[in-house]
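User: quick one, fold this
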Amino acid sequence: MNTLLDRSILGIARAVKALEATDSVSRAAGLFRAAGVSSLPVVKNGRVIGVVSEDSALRLLAETLRGLGEADSPPHIPVAKALRDQTAFAHRDMTIGQVADVFASYSEETLPIVDDLGGFYGVVTRADLLAYLAGSLRPTNVAGMATPLGVYLTNGSVRAGAGNLGLFLSGATLALSMIAVWALAWAAGRLTGVDVVTALRNNFVSVAPRWLFTAQWIAPIVSIVVVMVLIRLSPIAGYHAAEHMTVHALEMGEELTPEIVQSMPRVHARCGTNLLAAASVFLIIAESFPGDVAVLFAMIVVILGWRAVGAYIQKVATTKPPSRKQLENGVRVGKELVARFQEQPGYQVYGFARIWNSGLLQSMLGLAFTFGIIQLIVQMLHLSLPF
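Assistant:
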């Protein structure tokens, strides 16, 4: 019977960068943080000749800095001075169970994976092995999207939750929200005989300082605000929050239960709302002031404040406290992603497959398709809408 213990260790190997003996301790420190490991192999001609650990690098760096004055900059310290022999290795042909026995016999936290000639194939950590055997090994970075059919999650290679139809409908829903704003303005104009958008713009500009505002961006901003209100009122805002909260729980290593996920923040730093906020702030400032100085000022404001603006928009517009059903959907999709990742933790896709897994193409197709259909209907009915 094939069990977890009988599977190849390569399935949970980390593809970290190895060090050369001439590399600096500074570079090693950066790789430790980036890879999330406590030691890295040092190779020569592709073969492992030893390891450098955080402890050995820290001792070497501290001893060197004690001999320097405050004005002196740290010198280039080669990792060869912190090199130590590795007491244990994992062979590329070993099983999970065999590597577990190696960890049980040695105090190493990280094992280089090598072949018979010492060729380097990555590393395996004690923490990853424990998480794998416990059924809780998780991808380090998770992205997602809210759709009318529920939460969608992916690490770029493995995906779970709402499928391509849900992602397509996500774009279609955004398009319909934008069309609804324009349709309401058109309908109000037909009923009242007043061009609502133009009247709003003119009335706003008439009371605003002319040196501060120009008219051309008023209608787009009003449209954006109304679209955000519509999103906030829709179920997508609840699924969006459930997606963020589930991602937080996944990345923090928390257990996926509705109670724990519910305690997670609704705002996430990597949300696409932040990028939209950055673009909106830039365009507003650049359109409100003339000249190149406005563009430079807009860039500075965006660089300094786009995350704060994006976080605020997430909180008040694009997410709302999820219902129990939406929260449970996020938890279920999170568990599905973990289970699929656990089955093939070393699986990676690249190129178009990775872009497709992000869900952006499907959403863009839904957006374009919906606009196209509505435009066709408008032309068939000989109407005149502002899109």
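User: anything notable?
Assistant: The chain has two domains: 4-61+82-133, 143-266+319-380.
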